[in-house]
Amino acid sequence: MNERPTATGVVERLRGTLIVSCQAYPGEPMRDPDTMRRVALAARDGGAAGIRAQGLDDLRAVRGALDLPLIGLWKDGAEGVYITPTARHALAVLDAGADVVALDATDRPRPDGRPLAASIDAVRAAGGLVMADVSTYEEGVRAAALGAHLVGTTLSGYTPATYDRKAAGPDLDLVARLAGTLDVPVVAEGRIHTPAQAAEALERGAHAVVVGTAITHPTTLTGWFAAAVASGRV
């Protein structure tokens, strides 16, 4: 494996930029590593400065196609902590070519019973970077203290303690609060559906912005339009 870029180099390349999440759900027509590779290339051509991708095969395909900073994760399961849930998953993501390993850093039990610190320490020892996906301010503070290089607001609205936030769009208040407190960069992610929301996230202190659904998930995009047409609100 080639020598990994430094933490400072990767983080600085992402400052003030758009990261595009290229993922498809199991069973969908686009759930294919080569398709995600092509989606990532299209995102790069549109101006993305980084890519976030899921699954070892997808990560290998994307890594082989472009040299943008790559944030990788491995979803294993469908409930609780399933985004890169253990140190084993985290190291596999790193080995598949990710520069940054994204993992669930919420205050919930992990499937192997080990603490969050075990995953963060394993990635750091292997020379990789960690993006801690959190749902609350307290989780973000803890993840930074444990050594995460980046803290993302990815899971706000997707944990029992934060379900009430999901309907309100992106949690830019959490972005601002974390950015105003932490010494590590904060990445805005989660329900950012318009360019205006992305710009506001940066204005409120985000180091970078991740957009997925609104760029790379045609099933959802089609559904938005179909619902509007069906209701007569065109």
UniProtKB/TrEMBL annotation:
The protein's annotated pathway: Amino-sugar metabolism; N-acetylneuraminate degradation; D-fructose 6-phosphate from N-acetylneuraminate: step 3/5
GO cellular component terms given for this protein: cytosol
GO biological process: carbohydrate metabolic process; N-acetylmannosamine catabolic process; N-acetylneuraminate catabolic process
Keyword Magnesium part of the UniProt annotation: no
EC top class named in words: isomerase
InterPro entries listed in its UniProt record: Aldolase_TIM, NanE, RibuloseP-bd_barrel
Domain of life from the UniProt record: Bacteria
Sequence intervals crossing the membrane: none
EC number, as in UniProt: 5.1.3.9
Keyword annotations from UniProtKB, A to Z: Carbohydrate metabolism, Isomerase
MF annotations from Gene Ontology: N-acylglucosamine-6-phosphate 2-epimerase activity
Pfam family membership, one: NanE
Family: Belongs to the NanE family.
Protein name: Putative N-acetylmannosamine-6-phosphate 2-epimerase
